[in-house]
Structures are given as C-alpha cells and as structure tokens.
Amino acid sequence: MPSTFWFLAILSALLIAFCSQLAVGTCEIVTLDRDSSEPRRTIARQTARCACRRGQIAGTTRAKPACVDVRVVKSKQWCEMIPCSEGEICGLLMNKSGWTCTQPGGRIKTITLFLKNISASYSGIHQTGTSWHL
C-alpha cells in the first residue's frame, strides 16, 4: 500500500509539471485586459508566455503570439516578424516603439511594446497599449 501511494504521488507531481510546460516553439496568452472607457478607442494589454528555440524570442506573427528571430527585436524592425493580420499593412512607428496595422477600410491598430529583461536574457515581449482607432 505505501509503495502505491508514493507511485501515485510521484505520477501526479510529474503530470502537473509536464502539463504546465509549453511545447518548444509555442506561445500562450497569460493575461489579456481590455479597456473601452474612451469613446471610439479600445486599449488592450496582453502578456504572452513562449517556449522559444535558441535565437528566438516571444513576438507577434499574424496578430498572435509567436516565437520570432531575436534579431528583429534587437533591430526593432517589427514589421519583419509579419505582426499584422492578413490584408493589413504594417508600418513602423517613428520612435520604433511599436508598429501600426492599417486595415483596407482605413482603420488603424497601433501596437506599442514594453520589453522586459531584453538586454539580460531576451526573456520575452509584453504587448501593451494596443489601440484600435475608428
């Protein structure tokens, strides 16, 4: 009986540890907060957790969290990671703090970034202040 208990205890601990880990090359959204308090504007804050391969970092591809080449982040050439949805046109902000995605009808999404621990370990990108202007 005691050996069965320890077997089940170890098995459940391994399942908990395994299930909380991401597969290499994948991302998940950890937090998502939307603020629509201003008229004609929505501000969304999103934090993603990614398990990227060596030489990659958390980024955005086709408007979803994804692992991207670290050189894109170092150079702040955000449009190289193809961050906008299909049919949208990417434009780099003047100060390179983010990008815009212009939809065919003229609506503009502005994405600005908060980089966390970028110089030390390239641990991730947290998108903040995504704005949709009507």
Helix/strand layout:
Blueprint: H1 2-19, E1 26-35, E2 41-51, E3 56-61, E4 64-69, H2 70-75, E5 89-92, E6 98-102, E7 108-116, E8 124-133
Antiparallel strand pairs: 1-2, 2-8, 3-4, 5-6, 6-7, 7-8
List keywords for this structure.
134 residues, alpha+beta, 6-stranded antiparallel β-sheet, two-stranded antiparallel ribbon, 8 strands, 18% helix, disordered C terminus
Structure description:
The chain is 18% helix and 46% strand. The chain is of the alpha+beta class and 134 residues long. The strands form 2 sheets. A 6-stranded antiparallel β-sheet has the order 1-2-8-7-6-5, with no helix packed on it. It has a two-stranded antiparallel ribbon with strand order 3-4. Residues 117-134 have low confidence and may be disordered.
Brief description of this entry?
The protein has 134 residues and is α+β, with helices and mostly antiparallel strands. The chain has helices at 2-19, 70-75, and strands at residues 26-35, 41-51, 56-61, 64-69, 89-92, 98-102, 108-116, 124-133. The radius of gyration is 19 Å and the shape is globular.
